[in-house]
Amino acid sequence: DIQMTQSPSSLSASVGDRVTITCRASQSINHYVNWYQQRPGKAPTLLIYAASTLHAGVPSRFSASGYGTDFTLTITSLQPEDFATYYCQQTYSIPPVTFGGGTKVEIK
Amino acid sequence: QVYLVESGGGVVQPGRSLRISCAASGFDSSSHGMHWVRQGPGKGLEWVAVIWSDGSKTYYADSVRGRFVISRDTSKNTLYLQMNTVRAEDTGVYYCARDRSDGSYGGDYWGQGTLVTVSS
C-alpha cells in the first residue's frame, strides 16, 4: 500500500498568514493527489485534484503543486473560515485509496 | 447541484449487521464511481470501498474485506454499504462520495455522513 505522510500534523497561524502543508508519498504517484478541507463537525470538501487543479468554487488563495512523491498545499492570506483540518489523498494505486494523517490549522 | 444524503446509521451490536444508504441526485449516477469513507471518533479519514461507475469493479480496504459489501441501485440512484459482522472498530461517521470519474480519481462531492456506533 502507498503511504501518505503529511506534515506538520498541526500548526498555529494568524489571519493573513501564508500556510504551507506538505505530503510525501511512499512511492511515485505521478499527479494522482487530491487535497480536502474538513471543518469541525462537517464533511470533507474537495479543494484540489490532480495535484494542482482547483476544484470548482474553491477560492484562488488555495493552490497546490507537486509530482511524483512530494506535494504541497499552500494557502495565501489565511482567512477565518480556513481554520480546519486538511488531508491529502492518493488515487494512483487502488486499492486502497489512502489518506494522509491530516494537518490541523489552528488560530494563533 | 450534486446532493448526496446518507441514512441508516445507528447503534448496532458487535457481530450483527447494518445496511447504510446514500441517495444521490443532481447528476447521472451511472457515469460516476462511488466511494464510502469513514472517520472514527477523533480520527482521520479512512477509505472503505469503491464501486465503479458501470458496477464492473468493487474494491475494499483490508479492514472490511469479506465483511462489507458495496452495491448500487442505479434505478433508485442509491448507493449501499452492507456491513456484516461489525466490530467496535467499525464505529464512526460514514460518508459517501462521488468519484470524479469511473471510480479511480477520488471523491469530488461528499454527503454529510451517517453515524454508526457498534456497541453492546
Tell me the total number of β-strands of chain A. 11
Overall, the morphology of chain A is globular
β-strand amount of chain A: over 45%
Tell me the Rg of chain B in angstroms.
Answer: 13 Å
Shape of chain B: globular
Mean pLDDT of chain B: 97
H/E topology pattern of chain A: EEEEEEEEEEE
- Helical content class of chain A: under 10%
Key attributes of the depicted protein:
heterodimer; A: 108 residues; mainly beta; 7-stranded mixed β-sheet; 4-stranded antiparallel β-sheet; 49% strand; B: 120 residues; 51% strand; globular
Plain-language structure description:
The complex is a heterodimer of chains A (108) and B (120). Chain A has 108 residues and is mostly beta strands. Chain A contains no helices and eleven strands. Chain A has strands at 4-7, 10-13, 19-25, 33-38, 45-49, 53-54, 62-67, 70-75, 85-90, 98-99, 103-107. In chain A, strands 2, 4, 5, 6, 9, 10 and 11 form a seven-stranded mixed beta sheet that branches. In chain A, strands 1-3-8-7 form a four-stranded antiparallel beta sheet, with no helix packed on it. Chain A is globular. The mean pLDDT of chain A is 97. Chain B is mainly beta and 120 residues long. Chain B is built from no helices and eleven strands. Chain B has strands at 3-7, 10-12, 18-25, 34-39, 45-51, 58-60, 68-73, 78-83, 92-99, 107-110, 114-118. In chain B, β9 and β10 form a beta hairpin. The radius of gyration of chain B is 13 Å and the shape is globular. Chain B starts with a strand and ends with a strand. The mean pLDDT of chain B is 97. The interface between A and B is medium-sized, with 23 and 25 residues.
